[in-house]
Amino acid sequence: MAGEEEEKNNHAAEVAYARLVSHFSHHHRTTNDNTREDDQVVARMHSLSQVLEEFTGPVERRTVGVRSVVCIAKKLIERGGDEENNVEKRHFGYSILQRLLISSAKTSSEEEEIFMKNEFTNIISNELRLTSRDGAKVPYPLKSKVAQITAEFIKREGSTAWIAFSETIARMLRSADAYECELGAIIARYVAEDVALHSDEVFADKVRDLLGGITQTIGEVTGAMREAWERHFSNNNVGAPEMQKASENCALAVLEAISVYAEWAPLVPLVRSGLVDICCVALLVRLLISLLISRFSLLALLPMMMHNFWINHLNIHREDKLYKNILYV
């Protein structure tokens, strides 16, 4: 009986996956009728929204089981194939996983809880490794989705998951690779932002537990942030333009994470980590640059101002002379 049920679920998953893949294949065909093309896009987005609701909506409305949904999402996020279609397909797969984490948090059975924890631990570990490896090939929307899924899983599982992943996040922040470091900073920001600043969105019984876990590892994470900012802020004018841009994005992501921690974290670990010092240095550098720019701007305008003054001065004398000549005529 269990075998028949599993076979039925597998068949339903295969049918649902085939239906989904058809939405991401050859949908960029051009047509002379713009209205018809817009209608096709709207119909396609409506169909995808329906599928998302069937997969991750309330339990009574779901047409596919949790195991099958996870299996479908894992197929969607696989790399390879046409790049443009693959990006959209992977983004939708990540959206399924994210919505599943949120919607299943209060309704999962004990068996599903164990399955979700094991599956998502493996998925997230694999995605963090692959996303860091691929670097510039990964568009920001996909990178952001990976970070959001990681944050949602940590919020769902509590301090145990955060402490387990904090070592990975600290290692990513200390990485010399700007893309890997940026991903680590985004994850650290999302977790702290949701738990410390938007705690209403986290289940009440998890807030205190998560805050305790984040506070426990704050020294390690903030120390890694300081190292990351120093490294990539100093590298943003070195190397190829592509690497300069990557370092700039990484330094900005780290500063955004620091600003979130500064909203709630105790002052002592922030001072010990050196974050306060580097923020003061950053503000001082910005002030000096602003003063230099202002000074050079005035110096650049000075010749033009003098030139205009002398022209106007001569014109004044000419006008006076002309006025006197008129008087004496």
From TrEMBL:
InterPro entries linked: ARM-like, ARM-type_fold, Exportin-1/Importin-b-like, XPO1/5
Biological process (GO), any one: protein export from nucleus
GO cellular component, as recorded: cytoplasm; nucleus; RNA nuclear export complex
Highest taxon above the source species: Eukaryota
Residue span, Exportin-1/Importin-beta-like domain: 140-283
GO MF, one example: nuclear export signal receptor activity
Membrane-spanning residues: none
PANTHER family named in the record: EXPORTIN 1/5, EXPORTIN-5
Protein name per the record: Exportin-1/Importin-beta-like domain-containing protein
Lineage: Eukaryota, Viridiplantae, Chlorophyta, Mamiellophyceae, Mamiellales
